[in-house]
Amino acid sequence: MDWDGAVNAWHVAGGVYRMGRREWLTEAGWQQAFDDGIRTVVDVRNAAEARRRDTDPVVSDAAWHGMAVLSAPTEEPGHPRFTEICGPYLNDPAFYADNARIFPEKLVGVFRALAAGADRGDVILHCAAGRDRSGMVAAMVQDLAGDSDQDIAEGYRRAARGINERYRTHGPPHDRECYLDDAELAPLLERRGAAVVEFVRALDTRGYLLRHGLSTGELDAVLSLCGAGVAR
């Protein structure tokens, strides 16, 4: 998606989109997103991450007119078992299944937010880089939408390439991330794309969400948003 200022912004399925930090969008970018039908932003970052940086564009309150922003983190920062397995944040599809196992209520919360936004229009979900936390949820959305293994793997790979290009032009945000040239990136993405598919196919997204508290009505709303059939 070419919304002005947006980093790593992609269509996922139906009325669901994904991207990196929303603070990168300019006022013009928000107007473009609104014109494209976006009415709800689901932020899957932890609350402390949701802040403007000095390098971010200044955006007036008017730019948000008609938009709802919902906070639905995918993890609990500092959770001892999570950090033991994944480190300080999720940055590899190899750990998606651990995230889903440790924080089922968090992932249900994300899909509850998607359901809440479904009646308003299209929805953007975003994390910081637009790669792993949003990638985990995007893979689940694609699974609900009936996407192929190839499409799900490529959804992850294009987002990983997108943020890697950002690191090339702007530098990484900290020392846990770095720009990779294609010789390093290509085999990594081959493995990680396959890991995303393995995660989502083993998960059984519909069953997982219903088992952990998402109502059938909420699931129907998400399925409608994704362009899929209802759960009944």
Automatic annotation (TrEMBL):
Source domain of life: Bacteria
Listed Pfam families: Y_phosphatase3 (PF13350)
Domain named Tyrosine specific protein phosphatases: residues: 105-140
Protein name listed in UniProt: Tyrosine specific protein phosphatases domain-containing protein
Naturally occurring in which organism (per UniProt): Arthrobacter nitrophenolicus
Alphabetized InterPro entries for the sequence: Prot-tyrosine_phosphatase-like, Tyr/Ser_Pase_IphP-type, Tyr_Pase_AS, Tyr_Pase_dom
GO molecular function annotation: phosphoprotein phosphatase activity
